[in-house]
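Comment thread on ticket #2218

A.B. wrote:
> Attaching the input chain for the structure job we discussed in standup.
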Amino acid sequence: MFNRAKWFKFHSWVGFKLSILICFTLITGTIAVLSHELDWLTNSAMRVDGDTVKELNWSAIYQQAKTQQPDKHFLHVKAPIDPWFSAEVVYYENEDELHRLFFHPTSGEYLGDGRWYNWQRFFRMSHRHLMVPTKIGVTIVGALGFLMLISLLTSLVVYRKWWQGFFRMPRRGHRKVLWADMHRLTGVWSMWFVFIMSVTGIWYFVEVNGLRAVYPERAKAISEQAQQVKVMPTVEAFDKMLARTKQSYEELTIQIIQFPRKAGGSVVVQGQANAVLVRDRANAVSFDPITAELIMKNRGEDLSVHARISEAADPLHFGTFAGFPSKVVYFVFGVILSILAVSGTYIYGMRVAKVSKAEARPRRKIWSAAGSQMGWGKWFSYIAIAICMLIAFLLFNGIIIP
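C.D. wrote:
> Ran it. Output below, let me know if you need it in another format.
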């Protein structure tokens, strides 16, 4: 049987070997929550005056995009994520390289362009799969969810009467006491957040390793030409699709319109409707890209239980379920969780460094002691992060194309 001291030792040890990688994942994930906003700040073409936006004019946006790039094949047209964002069109510069165009949501006025690999892509890809092939990267990052969940559960045993600690201020005595109290305070406030992050992380792990949910097959184009080559709809066909979407799926709020990625592909109108905690893809209406004939309609509420759980993972993990306010909450608690991880590593370092009270600047010794105790985990973390940064550099400078 474990006594409290052994549980404390186990809690301290869990995740410590990979604490550098855990901290990196938490920090990149925290910034990823508001990475769209970071792009908004750094690219003026993404910014609009919210007072000038009356309604989303999909037809005007599409027509202007066709005018700007008449010979390019589009990946999608996407609605603004908030009223102060512009609408986005992504097109293929060539068969592999993507580029962005931005338009006023109501007038369709062309506002400028942007590269595909932006801040949002960097932080999302770094956090989700460390820039390496998805199965490998998601497996590594998802496995950290197991360590976080174990840390959470053991903390409930180690921290007696934890429910009384929400307003227990840290004591300003010895540095070990201060850091331990800070660790407990941030930990108790972020328990709900740790639970969501760890469970969804574990879900991504099991998904990528064979337990992916089954979804309805993608609708195929029915016209002969669209079956042979990937086709962009004309403006007239596009308008017909919008009208037929409104007729056949009135409750659908369109968020994104996907275009065929290969021969035989359909145009898919996606968004949010009655089902809660689902990605836009759960609610969809598919059309033939030439005739604009309705081929298939999918509703989020008709998905299997397995698929609904899978759909809920992203909104819960990234905090997008209530728009900008929920993202701000997630960002704040992401910062808290990052502090929790760093402080836990520092506390472990203080335990093994055996710093005396008389030492004036013990931090370097504490971090050095913590690093020496990580062993293989330190080098695994360093190598994983270094590979992530190298691939990011090559991608963002166009040296390699995935």
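A.B. wrote:
> Thanks. Noting for the ticket: The mean pLDDT is 92.
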